[in-house]
Amino acid sequence: MAGPTDPHGRRPVVVVDDLHVEYRVLTTGKRAGARDVRGGLLHRGRTTRTVHALRGISFTAYEGDSVGVIGANGSGKSTLMRAIVGLTPATRGSVQAAGRPSLLGVGAALVKELSGSRNIVLGGLALGFSREEIEARHDDIVAFAGLEEFIDLPMRTYSSGMTARLKFAIATARDHDILIVDEALAVGDKGFRAKSEGRIREIRDDAGTVFLVSHSMKSIRDTCSRTIWIERGSLVMDGPTDEVVTAYEAR
Amino acid sequence: MVTTDPDAIAPATRTGQVPLTLVGGRPPLPTYLRQVWQRRSFIYALARFRIEAENQQNRLGMAWVVLKPLLNAGLYGTIFGVLLASGRPPHFVEFLIIGVFLFEFFATSFTSGAKSITANTALVQSLAFPRMALPIAVVVQRLLQFVPMLAIMVVVVAAFGHPVGPEWLLLLPLTALFFAFNTGLALIAARLTVHVRDLNNLLPFITRITFYTTGIFFSIEQRFADDPLVLRIASFVPLHEFLTLARGLLLDDPAFEAPPEFWLYAAVWSVGVLLVGIVFFWAAEERYGRTD
């Protein structure tokens, strides 16, 4: 199923339809399974709370879109991004996507006991590159991440900024269909942020689709053609970045 | 950027050609297996790099791959062959080395295979690739580490005076079957651990129970010679079949003659467990890496 095209004839690549995500959490903070909710011998007396993280989000992203996602902490931005890659199941509604997106979040190295160089090879192979293609791109990736001096050190020795830079460089070496960047650039320094925003614009212009979650309105304005504003799990506004960001800042 | 091999990347990357699919679904099994096959160099590289990394952290490096099971064999040999020396099978040293080395391949594949998804959350969450590559890479890594052990085993057995014969070459198909069996088991364990994290705590117990019950350091045939039922059951235990076959091939003693039907049993087990493992693991593909 190809779905309808938009007025400009572009194809939809992510269709989110009335998406609800609910977490059931034990009051201890532990995620509750079905068993805990039924209450069995071992689980009697535990109380659960339902957190309604997303309450009916709908939108369609087209090829060549770069979508900024903004909202306060805890508004559901990361949950939405994880739902788009399938890491968080929908309670109701559905997400459809063309292909399997990569999600760049703040967090652990790919294989932390291996050197940056080895991680480039592994990341590239996992994404489907051949060995020769990786050899050809290796130096570009290292240069883009700005890690020439450290590339032979194990990734466990990297700072969070260095890790994020390398992961971004690996993931964007691929001719991208859908890329999701969840605050991964926030830990990078100013120079890297400018470079990676340039890369995101390239992907967008190349008919890829990028989602950028950020608290930096400047980043959003610089890179995104369209912006989605989420508050308490609901869509507040969806439109051209300028309008949405202006409204968000005036709230 | 231009990719030279269009099949290497998820086919038809350009969004125009990729149909929308429900996120959280999984590709049909044949497509999925093809994707895994496309990632074969990823699997091999992951296995190789892991071995390298493990070696770099130790001064003796690669030697540990062989030293560890040798020390194990030495320890068990001392305890069960000298201290509790009753009922020691003939050719005890060779018998024990074959047992401990084969068991090492099995146990490491099983334990690290079980953790292959849960221990690689970062990789699984950030990049899109068929997850089956991870448990397979673990077993490939253990296979690569089993090769030098196999060499040492052969040398030790030959040094103890067992004539080297062409039938020793049958160790290769035996290793292939053992690899298939271990892969299937690792796939099953990897998925189970994702559903029930508590299994991680049980793994050492399971391997230990297997170790003490499968005739690594004692001979099941000798110990239960007058209990046909136990022998009958043992003949259907896959690990027992692999051990018996390996000892039958290498040891020059009619006492270790392996029943030929063990080849059939071992093959059925290997193929069966591998197929079950593949289907069982694939059926939960969308579940791996989830944060709920």
From TrEMBL, chain A:
By its UniProt entry, which Gene3D superfamilies does this protein fall under?
P-loop containing nucleotide triphosphate hydrolases
Domain (ABC transporter) ranges: 37-250
The UniProt transmembrane annotation reads none
UniProt cross-references to InterPro entries, sorted A to Z: AAA+_ATPase (IPR003593), ABC_transporter-like_ATP-bd (IPR003439), ABC_transpr_TagH-like (IPR015860), Bact_Polysacc_Export_ATP-bd (IPR050683), P-loop_NTPase (IPR027417)
Say yes or no: keyword Electron transport present: no
Q: Which UniProt keywords apply?
A: ATP-binding, Nucleotide-binding, Transport
* Molecular function per GO: ATP binding
Q: By its UniProt entry, which PANTHER family does this protein fall under?
A: TEICHOIC ACIDS EXPORT ATP-BINDING PROTEIN TAGH
Query: Which protein family is it in?
Result: Belongs to the ABC transporter superfamily.
Q: What is this protein called?
A: ABC transporter ATP-binding protein
Q: Which organism is it from?
A: Aeromicrobium alkaliterrae
Q: What is the lineage of its organism?
A: Bacteria, Bacillati, Actinomycetota, Actinomycetes, Propionibacteriales
UniProtKB/TrEMBL annotation, chain B:
Q: Which residues cross the membrane?
A: 62-85, 92-112, 132-161, 168-190, 202-220, 262-284
Give residue ranges for domain ABC transmembrane type-2.
60-284
| Swiss-Prot/TrEMBL keywords | Cell inner membrane, Cell membrane, Membrane, Transmembrane, Transmembrane helix, Transport
Does Signal count among this protein's keywords? Answer: no
Q: Its domain of life?
A: Bacteria
Q: Just give the chief location class.
A: membrane
- How is this protein positioned relative to the membrane? Multi-pass membrane protein
Keyword Cell membrane in record: yes
Q: Where in the cell is it found?
A: Cell inner membrane; Cell membrane
Q: What protein family is recorded?
A: Belongs to the ABC-2 integral membrane protein family.
User: Which protein, by its recorded name, is this?
Assistant: Transport permease protein
